[in-house]
Every structure is written in structure tokens, then in C-alpha cells.
Amino acid sequence: MALLKMKFSQQRRVRLAQGLWLLSWLAVMCGAFIFCLGVYLKIELLRRDEVMEDTDIHAVPNLLMLVGLASIGANWVASRVCQDSLDASRFPRWKVLLLGWYAVAVLLCCLLLAVVVLSYALQGRLEESLKVGLRNGIRFYKDTDVPGRCFQKETIDRLQMEFRCCGNNNFKDWFEIQWVSNRYLDFTSQEVKDRIRSNVDGRYLLDGVPFSCCNPASPRPCLQNQLTDSRAHYNYEYQSEELNLYSRGCRQALTDYYMGLMNSTGPGVLSVILIQLSVLLSMRYLQTAVDGAMALESPEGESEGYILEKDVKATYAEVKAKALDLLKFAQVDPASEVAGAEEGEKAAEASAKAATTAA
Amino acid sequence: MPFLSLKFNLQKRVKLAQGLWMLYWLAVIVGIILFSLGIFFKIELRKRSEIMDNNESHLVPNLLILVGMLSCGLNAFGGKLCHDSLDPQKFSKMKPMLRPYMLLCCGFNVLLLLLVLLSFLMQFAVYLTLAEGLKNAIRFYKDTDTPGRCFMKRTLDMTQIEFRCCGNNNFRDWFEVQWISNRYLDMSNDVVKDRVLSNVEGKYLMDSVPFSCCNPGSPRPCIQHHLTNNSAHYDYDHRTEELNIWNRGCRQAVFSYYSGIMNSIGALLIFTIVLEAGDVAGLKYLSTALETMADPENPECESEGWLLEKGFKETLADLLSKVKTFGRANQVEEGGASPDADAT
Fold first, then answer.
1. Quick check: B154 contacting A, CB < 8 Å?
2. Residues of the signal sequence (chain A) (predicted)?
3. I need a surface site. Which of A167, B74, B241, B326 has the fewest CB within 10 A?
4. How confident is the model at residue B29 (pLDDT cuts 50, 70, 90)?
């Protein structure tokens, strides 16, 4: 009892081959789309490389690129098989390859599902990586004269302006570190000396933020310094001022951005999985229908196409038996020797019993 | 003596028709590109209309959209003509449409030429509109409570950040206007009163710039206030300081952006003119080759195709005489009466 049997006349076989050829070229386009998606995601992650501590999240675009390339190759092979399928002399050479092709196609679908799952699962790692990276970025903001860190200031400024965020969690992160380099501090000034002496580490701490935290939508020209002192500025109330600076932290902003990117690619990836599965099923039908037709006396007649020759349980039992056979191939001779010795013993016992009962 | 005539056998005619069909469809794709470029340019102008006083001219993008649509339609029809031309029945049905179609294509080419000239000349208009618009934008920067101008501050800040520029010509434009609203000035403060009294119009002028003028690439945290006072900041010399704020003026920066777009539109239009001219020439060759077949029943026969029936000078002379007789239509009867009288 075959699984999901269908009858195929010659015309239907030709239609199936043509339809599958078109579908496999569509699947090649989808593979190219997945590859480009992977490349785009990788470039976006690499652009912000400086504020990320580790590269675990790069698994998602790497996997996408790999699957995209493999999918292009596999579906191109499928289109070649379709072209040869109606030619009885050329089709048999593909027979061996097709089993491997099915395995590759199933693997690709599983990998695509894994990508979707990974993109949700790695969100926590991404946040951790951003937390550490941004903390370092803010700490090294002032080191524009240290080789290897001289562009940290520009990177953080551009990041804050582009993503409309300030600091790691919020703007108060800037109050806790010295972001003005000592080169620009006048150490003879009393104010500077007071600030440096006011904390254990001897750092120049301010309740001020860099200009890149300023929100252009504020109706008032940006207030950057003495933010916690309501009397330092006219008509300014520290607790109720909302529009002056960006209120979001950069870690939240970047995480939202990357999660948004990966979520928006979700539907695309799922539809590619569906297309790949339909190519797989149609290929199986075409293979069985053409094989059936070639076995008939009149190749133009009707044949049957199915997904599995027997039903699921019987196929599973067959596959299991074959696998066990392969495993037991090395152990066949000792097992038969032992069986032979046991039989001999049993025969001896039986004859001894017979002798005693007779006697 | 036909102008630039060529001999055609069946194979050459078929090749010409196929090649011309592909050229026409290439021209359709170019038409679609022109259409999308027109929409893109229109959107870019609308995005920044606030710094251009809402006064900018949309002539070039509107014409470009029209030209794109016309090009798609005309060239799709031309492709259909080529496709049908090798079938004698369909060709005889189409023959009367060929001449008006080719005249229409020539007219379209003239329109394209006009548009090329416009796209190069309108850049002057954009420059002048920008200059005026930016001057007003800087003046109205502080009016975030005036209806109709409340987003001027945000627009100008975003423009300065995006185009990496400061002020109209340079950053000193900010020294000449009051860009802090009176709502945020403590009028009882002596410093404020001094500044307001120091000029005729009673404006609060400073040697400072808004934060959007700051250059993130500067090694030093941005200095916005007291820019011309060296002693106000440690280790600062305003004459040699280059990286602190953007040096370029926004008029120059925004204009070079729009100028780039308009130059590429002009270049694409020139390419389209060449393509269209090639299409019309090819169609003329094809139609004359099909018309001059010695034996219409035999498709294998040879024929001749040309661009103009008589030589170039003769065609010009013909056209001129036609134009002259066109004006003398009313006087034909008088001249006609005398030969009749002579004949009788």
C-alpha cells in the first residue's frame, strides 16, 4: 500500500516535469535571495563590530549564506534532472544521485528552521555582547590619542546620532566615567582640581554628556552641561525635562534594530522552506512516475507515482532491517559458529535424554 | 539616389526585426528607470522643501515622470510593430500607422532634448532657492513655538548632521542671528542684558553655534560656545582649529547633492536620445525593406532599405518647398484658372 499514490498519464508526466523545472528555477532564485539576505545581515553586524564583544550572533548570517549557496546548487541539479526526465536514455544516470539529493534537500530545510530558531535564541547573547562592548566604548571615548582606540569617539558619536540613543542603559552612564581627556583640562584651574579630588580614582567626572546625545526635536537649544542642576539654566527642571536628550540607551536601540532585521526576514525564510519542500515532493513523484513508465511495455501509458513504496511503518521496518544488516556484517561468522556449537550441545542433550528414557 | 541605402535578403530582414524588437524592449526598461528616477527626485525635493522655502520648482521631476510613461508606451507599441512586421498580412494592416508613429517618435526625441537642457539649466534655480531658503531657516531656527515654523529647528539640525555642514556659507552665519528663543533667556541677568543692548535691533547675539554643527571626528569634545575667544578654552586657538565644527556651508553641501542627481538624470536622458534615434532609424530601414520587395508573394526575394528616399539635400529642399506652398494655399485658384483658360 503505497503512500499518497497518484496516477500519471504521459501528458501529466510532461506537465509535472515542466512545472517542476519552473519551480526549481524559482527555488534557485529563492536560494540566491537567502544568500543575499545572509550577506546583508553579516555586513550590518560587521559595521557595528566595534561595540560588540563577541561574534556568536554571526552564526545566523553565516548559516544563511551557506544554506543559500547549497540551495542554489541543489535546485540547479533538480532542474537538470527535470530536463532529462522525459528522455528514457538519459534519466537512469540520475537514479543514484537522487537519493543523495533528497537527503540534501531535507537537510537544507532543517538548517533553515534552525536559523529561525537561532535568531530568537541568540538574542540574550547579543545583548550581553553589546553591554560589554558599549561599556568599553564609553570608557575609551576620551582616548583619541591611544593607537587602536583613536576612532572610538567618532564611532560612539555616530552611533548615538544614528540610533538616537545615549549611553549604555541611559544618559547617566556618562556621569560615571571621565569622557574629557586630560589633554584638554586646565589643571591650574580650581574647578578642575576640586572635581578631581572629589572622587577616589582621581577622575574628572561631570554631570554632562557629549553633543551626540542631543535630541534635535527639542524646542530648546541643547543643554549638555550641569544637567542635574535645575538652577544652572533658566526655565529648566531636571526631573521633567524629556526632549532635551535621547532617553533610550544604545544597548536597547541596537538590540531592537537587529531583532527587527531578523524578524522581518522570518516570513521570507519560512516561504523558502515551503518552496523547497514542494520541490522535494514533486521530484519524488516525478521520479517514481517516470520509473514506473519506463518499466511498462508501452512507455506512453499510465504509471503510478507515490512518495513511499510501502506505508510508513513498513518502510521504517525495512530501513531498520537494512541498517541492522549493515551493522551485523562483520559479526556474521562468529555468531553462526556459536549457534552451531549450541545446536550440537542441544542435540547431544536430547540424544542423552532419549538414551536415559529408553534405558 | 536614396540616402544610406542597404540591401536586405530574408535572413537580414528577420535579423533586423529581431534586433529591433530587443532594442525597443530595452528602451521600455530605460523608460521605467526614467519614471522611477523622476519619482525619486520628486521625493528628495519634497523632503527638503522646508529649507528651500517651499518654493522649489518641480518642473524637472514632473516632466521626467511624464517622459518615462510616454517612453514605455511608445516603445512597447514599437516592439509590437516589429513583432508583426514579418507577417505580410499584419504588416499591410499596420502600414498606414507607420509614418505618424515615426513622426511621433521624432517629436518625443525633441522633448527629450529639451528635458536634457532643462536638467542642466535648472541647477541655477535650485542654487538660488537654496540660498534664500537656508537664510530664512537660520533666522527662524528659534521659532519652535510659532505655528508653521515649529519644525524648522529639527529640519535644520538634521540637515546639518546629515550633510556635515554648518550655516549657509559657513559657521559665522550663526553669529549674526539670535538662535536662542527669548523663552529660554533670563532677562534679569546682567550678561543677557549687556548682549541685548550691545546691538541696534536688541538681538541676543553670541559667537556660538548649535550642537548639530559639531564634527564627531574631532579628537576633542565639541566646543560650541565662545568660539572666537581663545582664552575661554584650555589649549584652543580658533584660527588653527579645523576639526571642531564642520567647515563647509550647507548651501554648497546640499547643492552638490542635488547637482549630482540632476547631472546623472541628464546623462541618462542623453543615452535615451541615442537609443530612441537608433530605434527610429532601424524601424525606417525595416519598413522600407518590407515595402520595396519586388515580388510580395515570394518572401525570399531581395529588397532595399533606406533612411531617406532622396538624398539629404533634396529632401531638405522638398520640405522647404512644401512649407512655402503651405502658406500660399489661398492663391492656388488664381494660378490654376489661367492654364485652364489657355487650354480651352
1. yes
2. none
3. B326
4. very high
